[in-house]
Amino acid sequence: MKIKVRKTAGFSLVEIIIYTAILAAASAVVVSTLLALTSSFENVKSGKSIAGSANVALERITREIRNSKSADLAVSQFNVNPGVLKLNAVDQSGDEYTIKFYIDGGVVMVEKNSESAVALTSSQTVANDLTFRRVITSVGEAIRVELALESDSNGQLKSEKFYAAAVMRGSY
């Protein structure tokens, strides 16, 4: 006599365990990838914020150095951190003005003719170092600027240092 085994629809316990393990492994890979992408995005975002702030600040500082005729040695603080740079300059219409650069509360500030100061760096960055170095040669005078910025975006701390130099046109 033959015994007929009746097949029923569904999964066995072993199959369910194997499929669950495969699904768990795939989910872990996806979550790990998403976390890595988020971390990379935050790092790029911090770098972009730092680069943008450095570009704006150094562009303005070097442009004003080039347009200036001299540095105000009584107010300027060279070779120290944080430094102060006050320049005596002439605008395109021939009017004289002074412009001052300094750090206040981790923000690079510019102050023209002792008016209200304006921030040159974004609120997402912190300026740790602003050092001005005076370079004097037989043909003219230059200012070297060192700027260190950092940004903390969701625990991703990124710090970069930037350098620029410009010759004062009125000095040669």
Topology:
Elements: H1 13-67, E1 68-71, E2 85-90, E3 96-104, E4 107-112, E5 118-119, E6 126-136, E7 141-153, E8 156-167
Antiparallel strand pairs: 1-2, 2-3, 3-4, 4-5, 6-7, 7-8
Transmembrane segments: 12-37
Protein name: Prepilin-type N-terminal cleavage/methylation domain-containing protein
Keywords: Membrane, Transmembrane, Transmembrane helix
Describe this protein's structure.
There is one protein chain. The chain has 172 residues and is an alpha+beta fold. It has one domain. Helices cover 32% and strands 37% of the residues. The strands form two sheets. The chain has a five-stranded antiparallel sheet, with helices on one face. The protein has a three-stranded antiparallel sheet with strand order 6-7-8, covered by helices on one side. Strand 3 and strand 4 form a beta hairpin. The chain is rod-shaped and about 115 Å long. The model has no long low-confidence stretch (mean pLDDT 90).
- Note poorly predicted spans: none
Structural category is: alpha+beta
Q: Major β-sheet, in short?
A: 5 strands, antiparallel
Radius of gyration, in Å, reads 30 Å
Question: Distance between the terminal alpha carbons, to the nearest Å?
Answer: 116 Å
Provide the spatial order of strands within the biggest beta sheet.
1-2-3-4-5
- Mean pLDDT, to the nearest integer, reads 90
In total, the number of strands is 8
| Percent helix range | 25-40%
Number of spatially distinct domains:
1
Shape: rod-shaped
- Tell me the fraction of residues in β-strands, as a range: 35-45%
Number of helices: 1
H/E element order:
HEEEEEEEE
Oligomer designation: single chain
Organism: Candidatus Taylorbacteria bacterium RIFCSPLOWO2_12_FULL_43_20
Protein name: Prepilin-type N-terminal cleavage/methylation domain-containing protein
Keywords: Membrane, Transmembrane, Transmembrane helix
Transmembrane segments: 12-37
